[in-house]
Amino acid sequence: MSVDIDTVKRVARLSRIAVDDADAERMTGELNAILGFVEQLNEVNVEGIEPMTSVIPMAMKKRQDGVTDGNKADDIVANAPVSEDNFFVVPKVVE
């Protein structure tokens, strides 16, 4: 894939970045170099290789997935000026 100046200006406009013609010309070369490197990476055979989370094999630290807090609705609304059925009551504002 090759990037031209019009594509660079379009991406800059979509990103809301001000790019003049000189910068667009420079960015065209830079983006083409980046895309060339990505195409080169696509040539690598990764068949049967699992994704890694670290450069060395290690077990991820995981916590138990369980409810450790809850059933404290009364405590939560205890300081509310007005509450009803464990909900905060706020005045209606109509403008």
Describe what this molecule looks like in 3D:
- With 95 residues, this protein is mainly alpha-helical.
- 37% of the residues lie in helices and 4% in strands.
- A two-stranded antiparallel ribbon has the order 1-2.
- A hairpin with a 2-residue loop joins strand 1 and strand 2.
- Helix 1 crosses helix 2.
- The two termini are 55 Å apart.
- The model has no long low-confidence stretch (mean pLDDT 89).
Short note summarizing the structure:
With 95 residues, this protein is mainly alpha-helical. Helix content is 37%, strand content 4%.
- Characterize the biggest β-sheet: 2 strands, antiparallel
| Spatial extent as radius of gyration | 28 Å
Q: What is the string of SSEs from the N terminus onward?
A: HHHEE
Shape: flat
**Portion of residues within helices:** 25-40%
Helical/strand content category: mainly alpha
Strand order of the largest sheet: 1-2
Count of alpha and pi helical runs: 3
- How far do the termini sit from each other? 55 Å
Please describe the topology of this protein.
Blueprint: H1 5-14, H2 21-41, H3 73-76, E1 83-84, E2 87-88
Helix pairs in contact: 1-2
Keywords summarizing the entry:
95 residues; mainly alpha
